[in-house]
Amino acid sequence: MSFPVVSVTTLHQHEGQTVTVRGWLYNSAGKGRILFVQLRDGTGIVQCVANRDEVGEGLFSELKHLGQESSLIVTGLVRADTRSKLGFELQMITAEVVSAATGYPITPKEHGPAFLHDHRHLWLRSRRPHAILTIRHLLVRAIRNYLDERGFILMDSPIFTPNACEGTSTLFATDYFGNPAFLSQSGQLYQEAGALAFGKTYCFGPTFRAEKSATRRHLTEFWMVEPEIAWATLDDIMDLTEDFLVEVTAYVLKHGRAHLEELDRDISVLERVQKPFPRMSYDEACVKMAELGVPVEPEDDFGSPQETVLTQQYDRPILVHRYPTAIKAFYMKADPARPERALGVDVLAPEGYGEIIGGGQREDNINVLLRKIDEHKLPIESFQWYLDLRRYGSVPHGGFGLGVERLVTWLCGIHHVRESVPFPRTLDRLTP
Length: 432
Ligand code: 4AD
Ligand code: MG
Known about the structure:
The protein has two domains: 8-99, CATH 2.40.50.140; 120-420, BirA Bifunctional Protein, domain 2, CATH 3.30.930. 31% of the residues lie in helices and 27% in strands. The protein has 13 helices and 18 strands. Strands 6-10-11-18-17-16-13-12 form an eight-stranded mixed sheet, sandwiched between helices. A hairpin with a 7-residue loop joins strand 4 (71-80) and strand 5 (88-99). Bound molecules: 4-amino-1,4-dioxobutan-2-aminium adenosine-5'-monophosphate and magnesium ion. Residues 346, 355, 358 line the site of magnesium ion (MG). Magnesium ion (MG) binds at residues 346, 355, 358.
């Protein structure tokens, strides 16, 4: 006789019924004639209670000696269990061991991060990665919903590109049939073509940077969502980053609260992600940081200790705009009122998490752009297509890039960005 195969998260719909759950042995503990088998099916963990007299001596003994992460199929009666978090347990009727495992390397004891990352392909089964990656999944959905509902067209940017978008020091170069090509650092330049074709577009894909320093914020492969809008000014882009972050955070809170609680995240921090976000210019931020005892060298970028101290003064993300033109990418439009400042914005997350978004208004004047390409020592030939966007109907436009892993890291309140991605790629890690 066969019974409906159900997942752990739907057990509440089957109280009093006999069902089958397929999964993996998470843990087991015995007491005389009773064995408690924690069965993990990917959606949750249910306790299955095996009574020796009911399941028979042979099966009882097999289950008792079964190793962690053995796969098995359990059929049992769904009973309410007020002591468990799930609220239900399975009174086992029978079970079938599909594949017995021995020596599963990740045990309930504490393991160091290097060991866990070496076993990432297995570690994914544990509660913490499960919660973090579910939050990532929810965030990706929230981002897509947000942009799709507001008329942005998804227009994927290529991964192979001849263009250095974000400077030449972090390029991964590859051979493209005898010609040099780079793995994309950002899909932005192609979105500018998209915005002039469709009005509003976005890309959402992997981006690559040969980051040579090992920090808790840097990956060499990370996912970026990059909306781009024709006719947009810096103010429009700042408003968009704010509205976007409020909405996607609210979505993740609404749908992912249990996972955030699993991670012991302080939910109140996320509940405070409401408009308006504090806004300040680079120059105002520098004055503040000097007062706080972490002065910035004149015209220099902020270091992470400075960003940390600055963001700790606020209870929500902050927008810092108009950084020195000299330290920003070639495509940023200079402020007409003050050309040594660029019409760009960075969004910095609170609690010391630092930059999660970079964006702004793009240079739309072809002559200025030609000069900037030259100053940045970029090869003009490979930018001819990009210059066409200024030759044929140039308009003010802008956009931003959000690093998904940075936002997941902050939403989850975890220490290191590498835990926010299924298989992290960093300076010292290409495996698994
Ligand atoms: O500030 P960035 O370099 O901006 C751009 O790439 C623009 N072209 C985006 C645009 O306007 N369309 O990068 C944007 C974001 C950063 O704020 C950060 O969240 C993330 O990408 N990021 C990284 N995340 C993880 N590891 C790295 N090495 C990252 N570098 C940037
Ligand atoms: Mg940046």
